[in-house]
Amino acid sequence: MSEQELQVQEKQMVKQDSETTKPEKYFIPPVDIFEDEDKVTVVAEMPGVKNTGVDVALEDDVLTIRGSQEDETPQEGRLLLQEYESGSYLRRFTVAETIDQDKIRATMTDGLLTVELPKAAPAKPRKIEVKAG
Amino acid sequence: MALIRFAERPNFRNPWAEFERIRQGLDELSHNLVSEGKAHMHATVYPPLNMYETKDALILKAELPGVHPDDLEISLEGDTLTLQGKRLRNLDDKATSYHRREIEAGNFSRALALPTKVDLDNMKATLVDGILTITLQKADEVKPRQIKISTDG
Asked: Which of A31, A47, A84 faces B102 most closely, judged by CB atoms?
């Protein structure tokens, strides 16, 4: 793959349908979604979130990933430059394939959340042999 | 005859009322644009940095998810801090089909002029959960010093 320079991506805020009781900022994490023959994988960028701050849920074919982090701004420091904001991350997807919900695995390393959704057996294509008769 | 401002003449549908409103709207619009520009310093070079200053140190934070410490190089020369490295694509391309690809992979390089002199031998950097924190101790001559006030003449 050719090397390219990384570009700055502005963080997008989640548009809330209703107001929340506490003012919280939710950002939309960029994701990669790819699929091979036995699972769908979602990788989301959530820097600053530890695996204890992650919440992954699949309900009614909607996958919700949420990550929250502690606010780590140094207390006695004076802010000189701020080019990005920290906050919580939230994103929802409708999952098309039928997924085996008991086998969903999620791992969090270096600020990247990887969610593996194994496909349930009926979704795997089965070839039916046609016999002459 | 008293002088009355044209726009304030009473008992008259002010013909300039519409214009006044448009002018006010444009003023507000331009104020919003200008103040937003100042409040958010948009980074033009990756990665975006946040910088804090304490009494003794300068702390820089950057979000670098998916970057390994081996792929990252931080160097300090005089007043300039240089951050360069790369993020590799984190999976093997074996017969997978992508539905969405928003995470970029590639190189980055950024040089930043530091606002104060720092101690070149005293630098600490940690990369935890995708957040890089660089702590630089200020050089001794730049640390604030208290001046004692004495009451003798």
From this structure: A31
